[in-house]
Write a structure and sequence with these properties.
With 282 residues, the protein is α+β, with helices and mostly antiparallel strands. The chain contains three helices and 15 strands. The strands form two sheets. Strands 1, 2, 8, 9, 10, 11, 12, 13 and 14 form a nine-stranded mixed β-sheet that branches.
Amino acid sequence: MSENDTTNGGYTAHRNHDGYKELYHWVYVAGFCLLTGVVDFIFLWPESHHGAFLVLAAAWSLVTIYEMAVRGWTSDWIIAGVFFWFVAAQVANAVIGPIREPMIPPIVGWLQPANEPTPPNGCDRVPPDRRPTGSPVVLIGNSTFVPSNPTNYDAIQIGNCMGLGIRRGPSGTAISTDLYSRNGQLIGKLRDNGFSLAGDQRLTVERSGDLSALIVHDQEGAELLYVRLLNPGAIRIRGIFSCPIPQLQWIAVTDDGIVDPRHNTFVIGCAVGGRVGMRIGP
């Protein structure tokens, strides 16, 4: 073999060695970035989206500083590269949004009657001696219900779902029902004013300062349930009452009326006696 052949062969081997070094270098860089991203999103993402993006930006900034420095970039460009990653992190966080922690619904406790007057209603014309003793006037939109049993009754029953149960005990009043969206999705369960959520659903639960009202909003802010004890003898109810069993049905109850999805209105006037104030569906 000639001297030139040896020289050319050595040059080829040296060039291949440099190529392998470059390849291994980028494997390490890519592996570091990938591993950082995986660890970041496994451990930090569930806790804080913003924090996960910032840690990822910091890790990739270190790689950017090293790579740009060894390749001869000026400090101005290196700072610009780092700035790019942190701006990208802020933009990504703004687009995706912060994490929303599942709400832990509070135990509302017993509801207590306020001291407000009873509004005019359809049962005003019914003499007290013809009403069940001790039963409250339950205001459902523009309809009124006086239950037979003042301590345990359902104000509204939709389909075969659990009704809006109202139970009065020595310490106050408790509400129990299942809460569904208008499309029939179970959102949560209310048992004696204590809540449990279905899946990753979210609710906002409020109560008035005097403990006379229980108010529930869904994650879009729509009022699902409003129950207020106006006084010891009157209860106001409104909200969205839905049931998918055996088929989807729902009504919207406001202070002024009751409507269904087809904008049909319901009026029961005054119902005296019985365990259920308003029943819709089978």
